[in-house]
Structure formats: structure tokens, C-alpha cells
Design goal:
The chain contains 12 helices and 14 strands. It is of the alpha/beta class. The structure holds pyridoxal-5'-phosphate (PLP).
Length: 350
Amino acid sequence: MKYRECLREIKPYIPGKLKAGAIKLASNENPLGPSPKAIAALKKTLKDLYLYPDGGCVQLKQKLAQKYKLAPGNFILGNGSDEIFLFIAGLLIEPGDEMVTSEVTFSEYEFATRLFGGMPVFAPISDGKYQLPEILKKITSKTKLIFLANPNNPTGTYFTDQEFKGFMQAVPAETLVIVDEAYCEYVTEKDYPDTVKLLQNYPNLLITRTFSKIYGLAGLRVGYAIGNEELIANLNKTREPFNVNSAAQIAAAAALADKTFIRKSLANNKTGKTYLYKEFDKLGLKYYKTQANFIFVYINTDCLTAFQKLMDLGVTIRPMKSFGINNAIRVTIGTPAENKKFISLLKKII
Ligand SMILES: *Cc1c(COP(=O)(O)O)cnc(C)c1O
């Protein structure tokens, strides 16, 4: 068979490792589990699973519209935000077009681009932080998309409101800028961009968010994008009719209203972050200050070896080798007990 040329450059995604009985700090899931309100809502709807889902996600879009004080037409739902990245590439990438992003960032932007025959272009990163001026320098007449993760995965760093506004002013109006805010709910810094507010000024801005992280629903696969109605209507053309299953829609709507769970999750993250920083400091390990629920830390030893040893001892983390960094790992902030176990094993192996 003659496979499409662009597939040659696509490497299969390496998911966070699961090991029976091990503590998983490899995929930035919520260590407190799913929102209890989501579980309760799901239980009530099991009897309806023989029905096709609502293809328009009407109720969930209404809840999102209320939350953001926007219209339902400003939202599109995806089977995880990963699927929305495919909609975006499917909408705008012709073979040979370019997508600009940073080095050391989420790999799905490259995947979506390549799948449609586009070329990813990577701007340099510095000290774990996106350099927006470097991204601007990479824009050419072929640039259709710019993907920005804020906070960035795997480094946990962020760019500010001021940096972002300057950036948007310089981006050509024909280039779509996607800000992936998968971890925005965890952000504590006051100068984090209010991108939703900027939507009215920039028709070429699209924001993506997800129920996979703080809402604890990674297994159900549901994410969304927020943008102007015309752009959203066009994105809808690339979507298959029943892309978000009914369990995901019900659970997401319930989780959105579960303020207690979000508060607990944030408190747990804060406690864990403080503890891990302190322990890394004691060990003399360099790390990046995080605005998310994970920490990128240099462990001064080969990360694949460390990954294997930690897994054998009962904790999985993410080695940074696939990002081209041999001596660093990314660890999800867990519960206090999980963090303690991780640190005690880390001490053993480094
Ligand atoms: C986890 C993550 C997502 C979310 O992906 P889903 O498909 O919604 O589960 C998106 N972007 C980044 C940077 C992430 O780390």
C-alpha cells in the first residue's frame, strides 16, 4: 500500500506509563479523582446509553455560555482538546502550510499539523519559557496556525498578559492563534492573560480548555474551544456528528458546577507544590516554577534510567528524553502521601 507521504514524519504518541499498583504521576491527572458530582450525574444516566448523544452538546454549551457570559455559538466541544487540534488543522492546513509553536511543548500541535500535510516550525525556548518574540520571527506567508500552550506543558511556565497583547498586535490577521489553556484553572499569577476578554478584538484568536485536568475527567475525553461564532461555525464543518459521547457531556456539565471539588483540588495542588519545591531545594535540584499541576525538574542523571528505577519502585513519572532533554523529568503533583513516596524514592535513585 502507498501510505501518505506526511505519515513518515509522524511518531506514535508515547502515553504516560501505567503500572498495576504504581502511583501514576506521569500524565497530570487530578490525584483526587473525578468530581463526585460528575460521578453522581453519570450514574443517573446509565440507562440512557442506548441513545445517540446530543450531537450539538446543547446543554453543556449552555452551561459554558453562562460561565463565560458568551453565547453557545462561541463554543465547540471535542473528544478531548486533542480532537479540537485536529479540527483546527483540518480547517486551515493545506499541504506545505506552516504551523509555528515553541520547542519543548505539547506534541499534539505537531501531530495535527503533520496529519494534514503541514510543516511544524519551532521557535527556541529559554529557561523553560516561551519566547513570544522568537515565535513572531518564524511567521512567513505560509504560516496558517500558531499554537501556544499557557501554562506550557512540560515546563509549567507561563507568558503574561502584557507579553501576549504585544504578540497579538504583531500577528497577521490571517494567522490563527490558538492558546491552549489546559491548566489555566491552576494558575495563581495575577498577570496571566485574560484571553477570553481579548476574543472581541481578535477574530483570529481561539482558546482551548479541557475537562481532563482539574475537573478529573481525562478518561471520558471532553475538551472545548472558545472563539468567535463565525470561526466556530467553520470548525463545526470538520467535526463528525457524535464526537462527544453522552457520558462525557453529562459528567462535564456536572463537574463544571462542582465548586467544592475545584477548591479542594487547588488546595491540594498548592500544598503539594510547596512541599515538592522545598524537597527539591533541599536536594539541590533545579526546577521551573510552575503555574500548573506538575513540575519540570532537572535530576542530574539520565532520565530514562531514573524513570525505569522509579517505576520498578512503584511511581511513574514522565522522562523528558522525548523532548530532547536527557536529565530532567516532569512529575505530576499528587496527594501529600503520593508526593512523599515520590520524594523518598527519588532520594534513593539519584
Ligand atoms: C493534557 C493537555 C491537554 C488536554 O488534552 P485532552 O485531549 O483535552 O485530554 C491539552 N493540552 C495540553 C498542553 C495538555 O497538557
